[in-house]
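does this look right to u?? nicotinamide-adenine-dinucleotide version
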Amino acid sequence: MAEGPSAGSLLVTGAASGIGRAIAEAALREGYETVLVDRDAEALEDAATALSALGRVHSHAADVAEGDALVTAVAATRAARPPLIGAAACAGIEVLGKVDELDPAEWSRCLAVNLTGVFNTARAVLDELLQTRGSFVAVASDAGVVGAQGYAAYCASKHGVVGLVKAMALDYGPRGVRVNAVAPAFVETPMAERIFAGDDRARDYYRAAVPLGRFAGPDEVAHAVLHLVGPHASYTTGHIYRVDGGATAGYFER
Ligand code: NAD
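got this back:
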């Protein structure tokens, strides 16, 4: 039988904006202490200040792509908070382009942040999650479960995240740690704003492809993440939870 949330901490990367910030907010409302990590130190401080009205917030600026930066972030906050019972690897960047259009440096950066960043986050939190029998959630994408035209690097990075999550679920399930991913389609965040800036045709195309007829709000993705982290998902691991308004359910014409 599922129990209510126990006192513990949830680490969120990419917490200064969009989906990550919404996850942090939802976690605080559910009674978790939060450890917020983001590369953008200024935006992180703003988010931490605003969110601290809801509960205890610890924050540490770090780039998830940099080897041990997450290990340092976890260690730096360790004494001041209860143990981690969850982690949400949400930091990510958009890189658009087909293979012949991509600079190799853009490809590498996309993989370094979106895929290696999840690996680095997992490495940093696993010790604690193994002790608490906690839960790890990666924010993948619909581009992690289906192809996405003109998104070669992004699509490869998110498919990689889906594979990593499945492998981790097998590796750590026997030791009590659950590992899942959410796979959102477009979400109303600054990332989507940048992608669609000045391109209403693309915005309308993608919106029309969603059976529910609209993009997600960041809170709707956050609630799915909190469900996967929490006790009500106690028998769910290795799952790719599509939060996409039906966009990847099949061929669809409005
Ligand atoms: P966003 O740009 O609004 O926020 C991303 C946050 O991650 C920012 O605060 C940014 O500073 C931080 N970040 C970026 N690179 C980082 C790094 N190397 N180290 C630490 N922090 C870093 O984007 P969002 O829409 O909230 O996206 C969050 C996640 O959701 C990403 O992984 C993205 O790929 C995924 N996603 C987004 C959408 C969408 O439509 N918005 C759809 C599917 C999946």
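The pocket of nicotinamide-adenine-dinucleotide is lined by residues 13-14, 16-20, 38-40, 43, 63-65, 90-93, 113, 117, 139, 141, 184, 186-187, 189-192 (CB under 6 Å). idk if thats expected tbh
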